[in-house]
Amino acid sequence: MKIATFNVNGINTRLPAVLAWLGRERPDVACLQELKAAHEAFPRQAIEAAGYGVVWHGQKAWNGVAILARDAQPVEVRRGLPGDPGDAQSRYLEAEVGGVLVGCLYLPNGNPQPGPKFDYKLAWFDRLIAHAQRLWDSGAPVVLAGDYNVVPTDEDIYDPRSWRKDALLQPESRERYRRLLDQGWTDSLRQAFGDRRVYTFWDYFRNRWERDAGLRIDHLLLSAPLAQRLETAGVDRWVRGEPRPSDHAPAWVQLGAARRTRRRTAK
């Protein structure tokens, strides 16, 4: 099973690129973020024509998340992150696909910081940590995939010096990401790449794509049952080099088949 995550930066603006990516790479599951489309404006027919069932949670002009499944229909489990009934931002969606529980998330950016946007980022992160702990404790095969808007370490950015004041690199943001990993989740890209640098985001400004001045902010965290099935992971960099691209490239994991457990027979 191939599971991917992609911040599309506007699903209708980038639809040709998204469809080209789906057609070429054929992920079994695709988590999309930053749809920037009202729920009724999501291009469902085009996605389904490409061979994907879909559930989505839209929001006019901002945010928005979706889970796609190739030749299948995702079964929605949760819409919205628990912990704050008054939070109306479309940032979290959870669905079951092929025996795997998929959490698609778009964590707040938090800039400018300090300020209310950064406070919201940290509060949202705390809610994610609490929910992730419940998912971990369930023992289910779970992937938490999306744009986390956090650069985990200085090894995940081309040069941290000009980003030190950015919300993505703040100690509070990084500490919360570490708390997630401390629950036991496997950071699949880091697991696959080891000490090698790998990026998923290149800003539009200052020729950052051309200079490969990137950041790693899109992550796929695996629970223990899925970490055992991890074969490889990667980034579809070619998507970032296409005309009118998103500033992100899709990241993905390839999982092997689930292990079968032998049934004990009565004597």
Automatic annotation (TrEMBL):
Active site, renumbered: Y106, D147, H248
Keywords: Hydrolase, Magnesium, Manganese, Metal-binding
Residues involved in Mg(2+) binding: N7, E34, D147, N149, D247, H248
Site (Interaction with DNA substrate): H248
One BP term from GO: DNA repair
GO terms, molecular function: double-stranded DNA 3'-5' DNA exonuclease activity; metal ion binding
InterPro entries per the UniProt record, alphabetical: AP_endonuc_1, Endo/exonu/phosph_ase_sf, Endo/exonuclease/phosphatase, ExoIII-like
UniProt site positions, description: Transition state stabilizer: N149
Cofactor(s) demanded: Mg(2+); Mn(2+)
Domain Endonuclease/exonuclease/phosphatase: 4-248
Cofactor binding annotation: Probably binds two magnesium or manganese ions per subunit.
Marked site positions, Important for catalytic activity: D218
Family: Belongs to the DNA repair enzymes AP/ExoA family.
PANTHER family from the UniProt entry: EXODEOXYRIBONUCLEASE III (PTHR43250)
Protein name: Exodeoxyribonuclease III
